[in-house]
Amino acid sequence: MHDMPLVMYDEDYRNVLAVVQRLVRDANAKGIFVVDRNGQLIGEAGEMRGIDTTSLASLTAGCIAATGGLAKIVGEEEFPVHFHQGQKDNLHITLVAGKIILVVIFDDRSSLGLVRLRVKKAATQLAKIFEEIQKKAEHARANNANTPFSEITDEDIDNLFSI
C-alpha cells in the first residue's frame, strides 16, 4: 500500500471528512488533519484557522519518517502513535493503515485518554475507507491495462512536448 498513489473521488473525500468531523466533536479536539506519508494534506476539520497546513502536513510526515527510522534502530517495525505535550496545545499523531497519518490537536478541554479512545475508533473507520480506495485503484489499474493509453510512456509525453 505504500507505493500506490492515492486517488480519491468525491465520495471518498466526503467519507473521510465525515469521520474527522465526528472525531473533532467526540474527542473535543481543536483540529484534526489527515495527511499522507508524502506530506500531502488530505482533509481537515475543527477550529484551527490560520494554521500553515502545508507545513503541518510535511513536518508531520517527516516526524513519522524519522521515528520510523528510530523504531528500526531499536528493533520495532514502527511507532504508530506519537504524543507531543505543549503548554497549551497537544498533538496526538497516529499512523493509520500504514499510509495515512491522523493528527489531532487538543487542549485542556479534552484529555489524552479521551483522544486515544476516540482516535482508535476513527482510525478503524479511516482504515476501512482507505482500504476501499486502494481496491478501487487496483481495479481501475487492472481495467486500464489494456487501453490504448497504457502503451504511452512518460518519455513519449516528454518527446511530444519538447521543442
In words, what does this structure look like?
With 163 residues, the chain is α+β, with helices and mostly antiparallel strands. It has one domain (10-145): Dynein light chain 2a, cytoplasmic (Beta-Lactamase, 2-Layer Sandwich). It is 49% helix and 19% strand. It is built from four helices and five strands, in the order αββαβββαα. It has helices at 10-27, 53-73, 112-144, 154-161; strands spanning 31-36, 41-46, 81-85, 90-96, 100-106. It has a five-stranded antiparallel sheet, sandwiched between helices. The protein is globular and about 60 Å long. It starts with 9 loop residues before the first helix and ends with a helix. The model has no long low-confidence stretch (mean pLDDT 88).
Write the layout of secondary structure elements.
Blueprint: H1 10-27, E1 31-36, E2 41-46, H2 53-73, E3 81-85, E4 90-96, E5 100-106, H3 112-144, H4 154-161
Antiparallel strand pairs: 1-2, 1-5, 3-4, 4-5
Helix pairs in contact: 1-3
CATH class: Alpha Beta
CATH superfamily: Dynein light chain 2a, cytoplasmic
**Percent of residues in helical segments?**
40-55%
Strand content: 15-25%
Structural class: alpha+beta
Largest sheet: 5 strands, antiparallel
SSE string, helices as H and strands as E: HEEHEEEHH
Please mark out the parts with pLDDT under 50 across 5 or more consecutive residues, or reply none. none
| The CATH architecture | 2-Layer Sandwich
Q: Separation of termini?
A: 38 Å
Question: Tally the helices: what do you get?
Answer: 4
Number of strands: 5
* Biggest sheet strand line-up: 2-1-5-4-3
> Would you tell me which CATH topology applies?
Beta-Lactamase
Q: What is the residue-averaged pLDDT?
A: 88
